[in-house]
Amino acid sequence: MNLLWLIKTESYKRGILLSVLFNILAKGILFLLTILVAGFFGSNIKTDIYFFVYGAMVLCSGFINAIDTVVLIPQSMQIREKEGDAAATVFLNFFFRIYFLAGLVFVALMLCFGTSIFGRVSKFAEADILKYKEYFLLGSLYFFFQVLTNYINAILTSLKFFTVPMLISGINSCIVIAGILLLRGQFNVLSIFLGGIAAYSINLVLLLLILKKNTGWNFFTKGAPVKKRVWGNILYAELGQLATLASSFLPLYLLSGFGGGVISVMNYGKNIADIPNTLVTTQLGNVSGIQLNEQAAHDDANGMNLTFMHTGKLLLFILVPVASYLFVFAEPVVRAFYLRGNFTMQDVVDAAGFLRLFSLVIFSIGVNAMVTRIFIAVQAVRQAFLYQVLLNAFLVGAILVFTHYCGARGYPYGLVLMHAVNYILMFFMCKKLVAYLNYAGLVKYTLILLLIYGATGTVLYLAMPYLQLATWPALLTGFFAYLIVVFFSVRIFKLLPAQEPAH
């Protein structure tokens, strides 16, 4: 199958359609990887260390790459608009070189002091860290590749190559799966790391070739120094992201002290809860974010509000019923995906408990992503920084309190509370920073959906124990029940979001 026709610039409408479709395919393959990990390796100290290391590297690379969408890409688009493509290329290349050097320094530090560092930032027993030290050392290479591939993906997306990152991601997951199938007999969980390193290496090379061949990119440019204002925005963005890094890493640190398998079952549950936002919000946010950046560059406030409202309502229309479904059918969903091989029934119950709680924040994550894109487009970096610090400080406190009194599930309890507070506070943030944004209209739309699907979920939640259906009959019953409710909500309440006309 020749997929080269997909490697080209795309319109926003085509970009949203194709990138979402290929994102579903790519993330489906990635989720298959999680299923294989659960089936082949179960939930134990080795899988805990894998998820801990992988999660830590994702958070560290995310900390660095936060400035891509917040500062670098919006700034490069403004430079391209005012000074031309060559000046934008010079600007982006400068930070590519910084990322490359930062990645090398990080890997060198981990190779020399990795076990000592991980011993300080986790609650794993020292004996386990020494026994599985290869996991920590090889896992550190993920950071190097993730930082660079995330950055190139952001550049390609800004150039309207919306589908390319999804194609490469799918290839990446296939290589990791092949590594597990071929090497698990000899290397066990270490086969995941080996397959991942091979996949990221190939991924990076393909992305660089695509960028070079399809845009004529010159990687060896030199130019004027970066402006002071940009460095200031980078500083604020990274300081704000530091708070997010702390609040996101804290659960990994705390859960690593709860015994073998806890981090694993938490991740298995969270991976399912992440599917809706991974498939839909990420791509809609990426494409709409580029559109919002362009509208902000042209001072088109009305257009930004229309883009925000249409995309926000579309996200809610999809995410609220999905969240309700996952809350009600958490256990049969986990059974359907994971109950095989070394994954036990107790693992199912534990993972479902996490999934049920994580499902409560699914729609809030989607709306928060769109509000963040608005703040990025108008470059309200300093204000967003202060808000981010305060919100994550609140989250850290909530996680510590809930974990102390509720054990491992204190993490999702704290997350639910934080998202509830954030959903309300975003109204005041939008009113202060982007007064033309109709966030109140989005809140009203949210409440209507929550009433409809909250009632639906309550009825099904109470009815399912009496029906005593097996896994797939339960899932299908719930699916068709929600489908009927969606159909009638569209017909009666006209809830299907449509592109609003310009005023």
The biggest sheet, with number of strands, parallel, antiparallel or mixed sense and barrel status, is: none
Structural class designation: mainly alpha
Total number of helical segments? 18
Radius of gyration: 23 Å
Number of strands: 0
Share of helix among residues?
over 70%
Instruction: Classify the beta-strand content into a percent band.
Output: under 5%
Shape: globular
Q: What is the arithmetic mean of pLDDT?
A: 88
State the order of secondary-structure elements, H for helix, E for strand: HHHHHHHHHHHHHHHHHH
Q: What's this entry about, in short?
A:
The chain is mostly helical and 503 residues long. The chain contains 18 helices and no strands. The chain has two domains: 1-30 and 40-224, no CATH class; 259-494, no CATH class.
What does this structure look like?
With 503 residues, the protein is mainly α. The chain folds into 2 domains: 1-30 and 40-224, no CATH class; 259-494, no CATH class. The protein has 18 helices and no strands. It has helices at residues 12-41, 45-83, 85-120, 126-131, 133-139, 141-158, 164-187, 190-215, 228-255, 262-297, 301-328, 330-338, 345-358, 362-377, 381-406, 410-433, 439-467, 471-493. The longest helix is centred in the first third of the chain and has 39 residues, at 45-83. The chain is globular, with a radius of gyration of 23 Å. Residues 1-6 have low confidence and may be disordered.
